[in-house]
Amino acid sequence: SLLDARFRFTVSEALNVYAGKFKYSFSRENLEACEMPLTLDRSLFMTVPLLSTNPTRDTGVSVLGNLFGERFQYRFDVMDGRKSDANAPSSSLRYSARVHLSLLDPESDYGYRGTYLGEKKVLTFGAAVQQEPNAIYTDVAARSGRKDYSAYTFDGFFEYPMKGAGTVTLSSAYMKYDLDHAYLSANPDPKGVGLNGEKNGWYAKAAYLLPSVPLQFFGRVEQWKFAQLNNFYNQKINWAAIGANYYLRGQN
Question: What is the pTM (predicted TM-score) of this model?
Answer without folding.
Answer: 0.91
